[in-house]
Amino acid sequence: MSTQHPSPRVPETLFGEPEPEARWRARFSAARVSLPGWAIDAPDASLYVSNASGVWEIYAWDRAEGTHRQVTDRPNGTMHGALSPDGEWIWWFDDTDGDEFGTWVREPFSGGAAPAPALPDVPAGYPAGLEIGHRLCAVGVSTDDGSALYTHRDGRTERFYASEHDAEVAALSRDERLVAIGHSEHGDSRHPALRVLACDGFGVVAEKWDGEGKGLSALAFSPRKGDPRLLVQHERRDREELLIWDVEADTETELDIDLPGELTGDWYPDAEALLIAQFDKGRTRLYRYDLGTRALTSLDSRPGYVGGAAVRPDGAVEYSWSNAAEPPLVRVRDSDGQDRVLITPPGERAPGSRPVTDEFVPGPGGDVHALVSTPQDGARPLPTVFLLHGGPHAADEDRFSAYRAVWLDAGFAVVEVNYRGSTGYGSAWRDAIEGRPGLTELEDVAAVHDWAVESGLSDPARCVVAGASWGGYLTLLALGTQPQRWAAGVAGVPVADYVAAYADEMEPLRAFDRALFGGAPSDVPEVYEKCSPITYVDEVRAPVLVLAGDNDPRCPIRQIENYLDRLAQRGADYAFYRYDAGHGSLVVAETVKQVAIEVDFARRAVGLP
Fold first, then answer.
1. Is 289 contained in some domain?
2. Which of 44, 72, 93, 441 could form a disulfide with 80 if both were Cys (CB 3.0 to 4.6 A apart)?
3. What angle do CA 235, 237, 239 make, to 5 degrees?
4. Which of 418, 545, 416, 409 is nearest to 490 (CA)?
5. CB 468 within 8 A of CB 390
6. What range(s) does the Peptidase S9 prolyl oligopeptidase catalytic domain occupy (predicted)?
7. How many CA atoms lie within 13 A of 342 on its CB side?
8. What are residue 575's DSSP bridge partners?
9. Is 217 a catalytic site residue?
């Protein structure tokens, strides 16, 4: 019989006054929409996700008619959808209660029919890429046996690739003659190689691998039929940059774009230019790059974070934008330069919040970039929450966060740390955690914590560490390896017992872990032991709150229970909130409940009223 772990308090309200209470809840519940995608040959048919119903679901938008329709309606929400090129069909991924294991289904864009299996001969699994053509579809599936890639045409499904290693369908040429796949046959899923196959017979057209520690990502084939050029992201000079690869001639052109930071991009519809997104120090800028003249033109996007961007057939650029103070909007920059809001979600817009400032703190591996925000009122030194992002290959940005905002409302300073392992600071910074994950990142967190205390920002007796996913893992590891620094910890969907997590997690994450740790637990047991929070559970002194989903394939529930059982044996001060979903919840009310539990737990731990 499993241990009955103590449940946290679920507060009815966080704040005594109605106005601040309504404000923080409105930031989560206000309707938002993602950047819409559209059908290649029917651009009036668009698709986006929204929380307007109270659950994140897929919506169809007929731009010609000006109508919006909710497509999916599932208890735990739906996030992954795509349109057929002709705009006639909506595809969406059908998993079970957020477990990420399932199949693609499809239904008419106009509605009126129940969803049906899109590719009935493709087995269920974790998604590993999808490309929908007029005559051919390519789809990837990952299971415990590895990766399998399939095509479907003329009513026939064929498996064209299988490997024990991680692989995905990456891109399909506009004329559907060529398919690009990313693979890790060399044994490192974090730095994939590329292969292009002919769809007629699946012979190899071209291969590209830049060698150990240098990944390649296929972004998109040229939108022009018959054009075999593939836009590729590479990291040959310690940062993510772009090249164009003519896969049939097997020639390439590296794009010399003189911008700091890291770059990604997509094609303009005429294939004569690229839309460039530059990520630098937590902020995004958009540019147009002319492939003929090599001219780089700023699109004058405001400083902040661009969550996605794409070019319409008429040259207009649609993009989602926010900064720390201003909630997200989907905007469009027309070809004449006018910039306006594209979609206004129903209801009131979310209330704003406070801006962030930048700090660059000397650390053992170089300067650590931290984003710092402070409450409107409060005398320093302040109670401070150090929010550690997930990933680990992700980053905190100058973007709107309802989660950051509620901590500010609760009286905390908020420090977000782009530790080694974060993206946007070069390949060496991202890969510095190899062979010693977790402990390396926490050296950077410690340097920023020292700065925050020494600068007078943070009260050393009232510092909280918090995060979800990889951030939850770092939180538990911090509580055990740096017990003197933390007054409390809040760990959402964490890795807590790494060996047990490896045994139970989805295969793509096992492949990731093997590349990050240097092998499986049987290969390098000492690394997994040294880097696992359960190794240090007896050193935990601060109160700890753990939140986890029953159906999480990334940070499975068993390994979390192992850690909690050890806390229980010690009589430690902890609480456990368990919910029926996967790696987080897409239900707004559930998210609000969890946030209230987290902030209330931390406030009581540091003595805030």
1. yes
2. 93
3. 50
4. 545
5. yes
6. 400-607
7. 26
8. 545
9. no
Q: Are residues 311 and 369 in the same domain?
A: no
517 three-state secondary structure: helix
d(C-alpha 50, C-alpha 37), whole Å = 13
pLDDT at position 274: 98
As given in the structure block, the two tokens for residue 505 are: 């997690």
Residue from 68, 152, 183, 583 carrying the catalytic annotation: 583
Q: Specify whether the CB–CB gap between 563 and 537 falls below 8 A.
A: yes
**Enclosing H/E stretch for 208:** strand 204-208
Phi, psi of 289, rounded to the nearest 5 degrees = -115, 115
Rg (CA), the chain: 24
Between 402-409 and 588-606, two packed helices, what is the crossing angle to 10 degrees? 40
Last-in-domain residue among 71, 90, 118: 118
Q: Which of 240, 588, 596 is nearest to 424 (CA)?
A: 240
Pairing state between β 329-333 and 126-132:
unpaired
What's the structural domain count of the chain?
4
**Strands of the 574-579 sheet, one edge to the other:** 357-363, 366-373, 413-418, 382-388, 458-468, 488-492, 544-549, 574-579
Residues 318-328: pLDDT tens digits? 999 999 999 99
Q: Which range is least confidently modeled, 2-16, 74-88, 120-134, 428-442?
A: 2-16
Label the pairing between strands 544-549 and 574-579.
Answer: parallel
307 pLDDT more than 70: yes
- Give, in order, the Cα–Cα distances in Å from 326 to each of 27, 303, 356, 510, 523: 11, 11, 11, 38, 48
Q: Are 286 and 301 in contact (CB under 8 A)?
A: yes
**Amino acid at position 410, single letter:** A
Identify whether residues 169 and 110 lie together within a single domain: no
Domain co-membership, 476 together with 530: yes
Strand-strand pairing, 366-373 and 382-388: unpaired
Decide: residue 81, CB within 10 A, 0-12 exposed, 13-18 middle, 19+ buried. buried
- CB-CB contact of 151 with 135 (8 Å): no
In this prediction, residue 300 carries a pLDDT of 84
In a shared domain, residues 327 and 451? no
Helix (H, G, I), strand (E, B) or coil at 313: coil
Q: Taking the CA of residue 317 as centre, how many other CA atoms within 13 Å lie in the half-sphere pointing to its CB?
A: 28
Angle between helices 18-29 and 402-409 (to 10 degrees): 170
Nearest to 436 by CA among 556, 531, 366: 531
Name the residue range of residue 479's domain.
18-26+351-606
Asked if pLDDT for residue 1 goes beyond 50, the answer is: no
What does residue 510 show for φ and ψ, rounded to 5 degrees?
A: -60, -45
Q: Identify whether residues 188 and 323 lie together within a single domain.
A: no
**Model pLDDT for residues 376-407, shown as the tens digit of each residue:** 998 999 999 999 999 999 999 999 999 999 99
Is residue 583 part of the annotated active site? The answer reads: yes
pLDDT exceeds 60 at position 562: yes
Catalytic residue among 469, 513, 585, 600: 469
Judged against a pLDDT cut of 70, whether residue 2 lies above it is answered with no
Residues 234 and 96 in one domain: no
Say whether both 363 and 431 belong to one domain.
yes
Contact 72, 107 (CB under 8 A): no
Quote the mean pLDDT of the chain. 97
449 catalytic per annotation: no
Out of 99, 459, 552, 600, which one is annotated catalytic?
A: 552
